Amino acid sequence: MMIFAFYEDSKLATPSLMDEIYDLRYRIFVEALAWSSLVKPDRRDRDQFDGDDALHVVDIHDGRVMAYSRLLPTTRPHLLSHVYPELVRGRSYPKAPDIFEWTRLCARSEIGDGDVLASRRLMVAIAEICQYLGITGLIAQSKPGWVRRLNRLGWNAQPLADPVVFDGRPTLALEARVSDRTVSTSRKCLGIDTDILDQPSLRDLAASKAKRHICAGALRRTGVLHAQREIVPEPLDLCSLQVDGANRTYSAAMPVT
What we know:
The protein is α+β, with helices and mostly antiparallel strands. The protein is built from 7 helices and 8 strands. 28% of the residues lie in helices and 21% in strands. Helix 3 (117-133) runs antiparallel to helix 5.
């Protein structure tokens, strides 16, 4: 079992692997969780945010994708900026080259087709990838209970606003900052005591053209900075395993602040 992290311009992003990823996402988010806005004739969950800027994190065992998640740079359009702006109620939220949005967290175990260990491994991998790339924080859309869960795993998590009800379910935007104990606490709490990240994929990731999304200081720490600072784009004005949704049915039943 190994977890790979890659962009779609990577040699790892073969057509067959990407097809399996989009198939798994569809089976979970459309067929199991009934997110009607994602229904497509080809039965593949691929949205406007998939592409060269999307960082895919995949747990592969015996040639099958067992768990998956996606990180999106907040210096580009992402879910909170273009799909769920209501969740922050008009407030500003973290957007920077070292802040990513955490989306599409899922595992085959949710549809009775895999081991729950894959989801635990993926949670640890996300923390380790953040540490390796110098990503200082993530934003996400989640059930309110995820703030407490992430704090237990060593993140510094907090809601960005009070929950909003989508499809009858309270949903909030949250921020999870990486601390010096995030990786160790996540590994301890989730029972992961072996190396799980594919190191060649991480090295390729750090050296890829997508490094422009990561803060210059972080890249210096990884020893792969050889681009000029001006290529870092200016920021635009970031389980059960459900970390984000895409159903736009909006309810006016808002909590009282």
